[in-house]
User: Which sequence fits this backbone?
């Protein structure tokens, strides 16, 4: 695990509270404590960070921000809740807008108590977080070999924003083939997706609470239409898509046959569908200059 | 190409990442000491890069990673040309191409932060390009050759005595090229600034590690160029190159960031007065 332990980059967010822990956290960077001698770098960019330091209780306003920062951090990552408020809600616990500690929003690995937490305690928390970081890294490596740890469940309306960001990532190859404006998954807006979530069946695949794949479909005249199966590029070739498709077919009972359609130039997707037992049965032009191919499968 | 240039090319390709990484480690250490802190171990940049290679690579568009890979390849190519003793003008154009690939990668990510970072990087390139070209021209006027090999083998007084203005102007462009204060407009090593991390905001994991390694290669190549000014006195040359590096760190810690208008105006003023003035005097003396 050379490197991971010596170079924890932290991102710091104050969810609410009195700013006491916030100031103590920044005090760790000053000459008196100088956490940089342990390789700790304070970065403002979630995509560069390994450890997420949160101070203060989670309130209605900060829920979305905490979740957003957490989602943008690359795996392996750990969360440290600093101070009484971040651990449990503290004296703000009973307030009408406070949901409690940070663990009510995202999974927390290390809790640092104190009001305000002392810089020594915060540094100790970061060092303990390193152990959690190593465990996370091991779990991540194991995950590549074992897809059983992926959780499959129905998506809810709360997942809309994360599904949207996943589909914008997953449809990029189609975007480069056809131009981004011609790929429905890339031009869809959040309100449109929220409406779609109420009308169609969505199955999601999650790893460590993070969305890695989505399949969606709907039923019409005893035919199950598979509108979309997307998997994050990082989890390709792990069997996530196959399981998503199976779960979606299960979620559409009483159907005689299933149908899926894709652009004619998406060769890899076509090959994948054929591996799942789907057969090509017709081709037509969907938009000028864009042909669509249709696949079907009878239920056995 | 002679045997010697092959050897120096291979040495550059193998040793530059080690030397560059150690120099960056010293940079962080010296900076910390200037701020009366202990500072990280000098191997810290290597730890960082090893760690980044183990992280997940999150992208906005997957193609942004190809541009960064090309950035690394062309930075190595630039330094390779330089240390193989090739044409200095070709080196400058290859360096520009490399920088353009990084800018394209940042544009490709289409986030407002990396977008403004990319635009500022282009402005910085506009700021330093004229002085870099004048440096090559000045070296040609003294040695009558654009070949790095010939300039390095020039047996006269060190170039710096004939090109003092150009040397100072080149130091000015180094500040811009290293993205150090007062010219850390497009991307900064320090947290909590208005652009998050500017140019590198949207890169993570292995791609970010590639950018770091490219900076190590670039660092060694640029310090090699400083050495050219003292090529006929090798020991002095190496000492001055290292001193220049310490000077850059010192300036980084002393100055606040300039606005881009000030950056481009001052850089062009330096190029016009020190660079062009030096060349004018040189041509009048002959």
Assistant:
């Amino acid at each position: 695990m050379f490197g991971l332990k010596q170079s924890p980059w932290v991102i710091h967010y104050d969810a609410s509270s009195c700013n006491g822990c916030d100031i103590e956290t920044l005090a760790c960077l000053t000459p008196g404590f100088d956490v940089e001698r342990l390789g700790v770098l304070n970065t403002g960019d979630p995509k560069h960070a390994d450890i997420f330091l949160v101070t203060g209780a989670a309130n209605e306003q900060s829920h979305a921000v905490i979740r957003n920062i957490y989602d943008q951090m690359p795996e392996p990552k750990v969360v440290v809740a600093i101070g009484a408020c971040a651990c449990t809600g503290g004296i703000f616990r009973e307030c009408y807008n406070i949901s409690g500690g940070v663990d009510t929003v995202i999974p927390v690995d290390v809790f640092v108590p104190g009001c305000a937490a002392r810089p020594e305690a915060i540094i100790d928390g970061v060092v303990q977080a390193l152990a959690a970081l190593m465990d996370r890294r091991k779990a991540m490596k194991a995950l590549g070999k074992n897809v059983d740890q992926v959780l499959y469940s129905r998506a809810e309306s709360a997942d809309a924003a994360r599904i949207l960001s996943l589909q914008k990532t997953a449809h990029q190859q189609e975007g480069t083939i056809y131009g981004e404006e011609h790929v429905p998954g890339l031009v869809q807006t959040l309100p449109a997706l929220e409406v779609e979530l109420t009308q169609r069946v969505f199955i999601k695949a999650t790893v460590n609470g993070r969305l890695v794949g989505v399949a969606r479909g709907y039923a019409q005249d005893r035919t199950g239409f598979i509108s979309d199966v997307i998997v994050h590029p990082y989890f390709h070739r792990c069997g996530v898509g196959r399981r998503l498709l199976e779960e979606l077919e299960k979620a559409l009972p009483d159907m005689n046959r299933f149908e899926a359609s894709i652009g004619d130039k998406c060769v890899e997707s076509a090959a994948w569908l054929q591996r799942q037992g789907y057969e090509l049965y017709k081709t037509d032009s969907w938009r000028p200059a864009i042909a669509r191919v249709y696949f079907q499968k009878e239920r056995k | 190409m002679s045997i010697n240039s092959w050897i120096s090319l291979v040495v550059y390709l193998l040793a530059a990442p080690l030397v560059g990484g150690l120099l960056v480690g010293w940079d962080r250490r010296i900076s910390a000491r200037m701020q009366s802190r202990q500072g990280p171990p000098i191997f810290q940049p290597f730890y960082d890069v090893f760690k980044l290679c183990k992280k997940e690579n999150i992208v906005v568009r997957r193609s942004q990673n190809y541009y960064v890979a090309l950035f690394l390849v062309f930075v190595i190519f630039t330094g390779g040309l330089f240390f193989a003793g090739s044409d200095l003008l070709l080196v400058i154009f290859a360096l520009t191409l490399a920088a353009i690939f990084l800018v394209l990668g940042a544009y490709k990510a289409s986030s407002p932060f990396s977008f403004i970072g990319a635009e500022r990087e282009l402005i910085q390139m506009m700021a330093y390009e004229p002085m870099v070209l004048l440096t090559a021209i000045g070296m040609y006027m003294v040695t009558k050759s654009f070949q790095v090999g010939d300039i390095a083998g020039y047996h006269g007084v060190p170039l710096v005595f004939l090109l003092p203005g150009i040397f100072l102007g080149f130091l000015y462009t180094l500040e811009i090229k290293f993205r150090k204060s007062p010219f850390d407009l497009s991307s900064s090593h320090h947290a909590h600034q208005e652009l998050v991390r500017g140019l590198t905001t949207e890169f993570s994991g292995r791609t970010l590690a590639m950018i770091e390694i490219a900076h190590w290669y670039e660092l060694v190549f640029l310090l090699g160029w400083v050495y050219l000014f003292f090529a006929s006195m090798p020991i002095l040359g190496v000492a001055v190159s290292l001193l220049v590096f310490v000077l850059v760190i010192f300036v980084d810690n002393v100055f606040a960031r300039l606005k881009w208008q000030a950056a481009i105006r001052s850089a062009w003023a330096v190029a016009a007065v020190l660079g062009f003035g030096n060349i004018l005097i040189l041509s009048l003396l002959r």
Summary: The mean pLDDT of chain A is 85. Chain A has ten helices and 14 strands. Chain A touches chain B through 31 residues (CB under 8 Å).
